[in-house]
Design a protein that fits this description.
Length: 131
């Protein structure tokens, strides 16, 4: 598939390989999206955010080494022009607040990802919050 010059560049970070691969597969079917990297933990996500310059990062909240919320804060501290959407198994207002405080533009529950992730990515890319 030939990517449009207007494609949304996305980094996917999730420690569960099956989840990570299914998200990547879902995103590659979208004509306006391009997956530029995939990370298995928060530390790797921070490194890939610097080297791949994504527009949007899909970041699992619970990951080894560095959790997703802390990684989001580290990425924001780097001053990268990137929007971060947190992905979690749990809907918790405390987690949503922590995510927002660390620069997240969105928060999607994994069970709702099939319906909510694509619209959340497009919204975040436009600078809209989906928390």
């Amino acid at each position: 598939m030939i990517m449009s010059e207007y494609s949304i560049r996305i980094l996917v970070a999730d420690d569960h390989e099956v989840v990570r691969k299914s998200i990547v597969a879902m995103l590659t079917r979208e004509p306006d999206m391009e997956v530029v990297g995939a990370a298995g933990n928060g530390r790797e996500a921070v490194q890939l955010a610097q080297s791949t310059t994504p527009d949007v990062i899909i970041m699992d909240v619970s990951m080894p080494e560095v959790d997703g919320i802390r990684a989001a804060g580290e990425i924001q501290a780097l001053g990268l022009a990137v929007q971060i959407i947190m992905l979690s198994m749990h809907h918790s207002s405390a987690l949503v607040q922590q995510a927002r405080k660390n620069g997240a533009a969105g928060y999607v529950i994994k069970q709702q990802a099939n319906n909510e992730l694509i619209p959340a990515i497009r919204a975040a890319h436009k600078g809209e919050l989906t928390l």
